[in-house]
Write a structure and sequence with these properties.
By secondary structure, the protein is mostly helical. It contains three helices and two strands.
Length: 147
């Protein structure tokens, strides 16, 4: 291939790359401008909803200040209640895990003492029965009357 042919091929490759770059940036610009339009619409709606509050702030600043303090107080009370509820749930979970741990310790001690089955297990399992049989266990279906 001649030098002119290689330059033409190189130019065509560069032109295709530039065209894909242009289309990429056009898409990016379109996406960004759409996002800006959506944000502007949301801002306008919010401003419209807040208009009575802004007018009250302009005409009665002291009343608005009292109102805002009261709202903050109500929110802090609600947050304190939610925090207390979360702490209570966490304490209950911790207490349950302590209870489970105690039960597991008791079962482990029973097994270490040589008791193969623990009283807390279902009777069918203690006696070697299994719902569907298997692995040397008697089937519950064949011995329904014996339990």
């Amino acid at each position: 291939m001649s030098v002119a042919g290689r330059n033409t091929t190189s130019f065509v490759g560069n032109a295709k790359g530039a065209a894909s770059s242009v289309s990429y940036y056009q898409r990016q610009y379109f996406n960004a401008s759409s996002a800006v339009e959506r944000l502007q619409e949301r801002y306008d709606r919010l401003k419209e909803k807040c208009q009575p509050f802004l007018q009250a702030l302009e005409h009665f600043p002291k009343l608005v200040e009292i109102f805002v303090k009261k709202v903050k107080e109500l929110f802090s009370i609600k947050e304190a209640q939610e925090r207390k509820e979360r702490e209570d749930r966490a304490a209950a979970r911790k207490e349950q895990s302590k209870h489970r741990r105690g039960r597991n310790d008791w079962e482990r001690q029973c097994r270490q003492a040589g008791h193969p089955r623990v009283a807390s297990e279902p009777r069918a399992l203690r006696e070697g029965y299994h719902a569907h049989g298997g692995r040397g266990q008697k089937s519950l279906r064949s011995t329904q009357g014996n339990l």
